[in-house]
Amino acid sequence: MWNSIIGQENIKKIFNNIIKSGKFANAYIFYGNDGVGKDAVAVELAKILNCSEIYDKFEACDNCRYCRQIKSLHSPLIKYITALPTGKKNSENEDPVINLDSEDYEIYIQELHKKSNDLYYKISIPDANSIRIDSIRNLINESNFTIEQNKKKFFIISECDKMNDQSSNSLLKILEEPPKNSHFILTTSKPYSLLPTIWGRCQKIKFNNIRKNEIINYIKITKPEILENEINLITELSNGSISLCKEILDSYFLELREDIINLIRFIIQNKYIDVHKYISKIIAVKDKAKYRQAILLMILWFRDISMNLLDLPEYLTNKDKSENIKKYNSRFISENHRIIRFLENAIKDIDKNINPEILFYNISFGIKKLITERT
Q1: How confident is the model over 254-290, as pLDDT tens digits?
Q2: What are the Cα distances from residue 135, in Å, to 160, 166, 225?
Q3: Cα distance between residue 352 and residue 355, in whole Å
Q4: I want to staple 53 with a disulfide (CB 3.0 to 4.6 A). Which of 61, 249, 343, 355 is the partner?
């Protein structure tokens, strides 16, 4: 039901009006940052427009056969398409999933199950770097299948920016002449990576970041045992993303924060053996989400240093570390705005598959250049 969608009240109103008007488009692009509910809304719409026992014009019952099957992502009325690793050569129009290596296939099934249980979950399959043309060809083939009367089939292409030119051009053909009762929803955090021709063929719906108060409420409901000061820190780190918030809640973020504070301290002190120890600890688990969290913690630390200099303690994220921050400012001068911009650019490098050890050493040297000791 819409109640399962966190925030995005404007999006709900938009689609309530579209459903009321009966003018649901054949193709949409949902764009916005990761973890803001693009896939979740797409699946919810598939339920609403196919529910057999709808008790309200804009609410699916969540109990009928159609709602349950669509939510599980195993229904003839929904096809969820994501990037896949390379598999065996497919026969024409065959679903490439069935030709994945056995290990990749098991991972895919597990990831899809996690996604069906939590529509904010971000599927992660090793070496799944692109949406294969076989997936799009299979989509085109299935879009022409006959479905039950008065039902609508939804094709959700998640992270559609991972389509290459070949896949994109193949999809364009079906978008130009979409079959009746077939709807295509493309979700992306990188809309301008799409071909202009695809962008032009779809209705565009922009998703905003989840508001801080909505993330705070989500944390309190999900993890009521978390302390207030920790909630504020997690909210800041979540950066408007529910999926990122979930990752943080499931990780040892307080331990990671201590590691980051120690790393910064040893960078300043030129203790490179200790710098190496903490960098090694951060990158020990090959996890881009953890790298991103680590850099975000650095950003928040230097932002707090600026807030302390401006005598704005109420804006500190790391309130429990206020004494450490005061001591830092009594001993050092740092170009905080430049450091923060430098770190924001470093976050972008994570998705470019730069060696994480090199990335964090570059960060260490870059930060050190922008900090001097008070005389």
Answers
A1: 788 899 999 999 999 889 899 999 999 988 877 787 8
A2: 12, 11, 43
A3: 9
A4: 61
User: Tokens 């590691």 appear where?
Assistant: 259
Q: What is the pLDDT of residues 27-54, one digit of tens each?
A: 999 999 888 999 999 999 999 898 887 6
Question: What pairs with residue 292 in β-bridges?
Answer: none
pTM across the whole model: 0.77
Query: Which whole-number Å values give the CA distances from 149 to 77, 152, 153, 157, in the listed order?
Result: 12, 9, 11, 24
Residue 156: its H or E element: strand 153-157
Does the pLDDT at position 67 exceed 80?
A: yes
Domain-wise residue ranges, the chain: 2-206, 251-373
124 burial (CB, 10 Å; 0-12 / 13-18 / 19+) is: middle
CA count, 13 A, side-chain hemisphere, 286? 5
Token duo for residue 273: 């053996």
CATH 3.40.50.300 fits 2-206, yes or no: yes
Structure tokens at 160: 């559609």
| Contacts by residues 340-348 (CB-CB < 8 Å, ≥ 24 positions apart) | 340/299, 340/302, 340/303, 342/366, 342/367, 342/370, 343/295, 343/298, 343/299, 343/302, 343/367, 344/299, 346/295, 347/292, 347/295, 347/296
For the record, the structure tokens of 97 come out as 């999933």
303: its two tokens:
């932002």
